[in-house]
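Work Package 4 report. The design task specified in the project plan requires that, given a folded chain encoded as structure tokens, an amino acid be chosen for each position. We show below one input record used in the internal validation round.
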């Protein structure tokens, strides 16, 4: 190879790597939004004492929510692993955040505050998606939802409604 060929190859690789690296400002904006939206409050695993396991990122909540008449649900893995959002398109992530609808057609549990996120504007949605994509992928399968009254395979909070 000539020096000219090496320089062209190096420039191509540097340009390609830069194009595939998410914009740091976009990821920082998404991280900020994720903090104020408290994504970790549900989607970060907890240890036996209830303390957040920061090293696990948003790999899925270990404490579920039992909702009267709906069943019990656990917060999903939001990392870019295939057990999380790894197979989802950016558009599918945006749709879940703003409409509560998963790609498989299942509606997210009402504890996911998607109605409050429905008004997010496209730049903020793009930032959230970039941030979620920037996380290290963590393999973690969370329990699937269980029907009302069915035994739960993991700890959960019981949501009760006030009596009339």
């Amino acid at each position: 190879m000539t020096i000219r060929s090496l320089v062209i190859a190096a420039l191509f690789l540097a340009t390609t790597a830069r194009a595939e690296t998410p914009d740091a400002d976009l990821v920082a904006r998404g991280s900020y939004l994720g903090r104020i939206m408290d994504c970790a409050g549900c989607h970060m695993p907890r240890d036996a004492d209830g303390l957040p396991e920061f090293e696990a990122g948003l790999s899925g909540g270990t404490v579920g929510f039992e909702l009267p008449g709906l069943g019990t649900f656990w917060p999903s893995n939001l990392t870019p692993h295939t057990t999380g959002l790894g197979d989802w398109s950016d558009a599918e992530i945006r749709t879940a955040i703003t409409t509560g609808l998963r790609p498989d057609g299942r509606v997210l549990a009402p504890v996911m505050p998607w109605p409050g996120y429905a008004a997010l504007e496209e730049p903020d949605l793009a930032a959230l998606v970039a941030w979620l994509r920037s996380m290290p992928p963590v393999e973690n399968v969370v329990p699937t939802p269980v029907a009302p009254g069915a035994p739960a395979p993991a700890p959960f909070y019981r949501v009760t409604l006030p009596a009339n």
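The chain has one domain: 23-158. Validation will be extended to a larger panel in the next phase.
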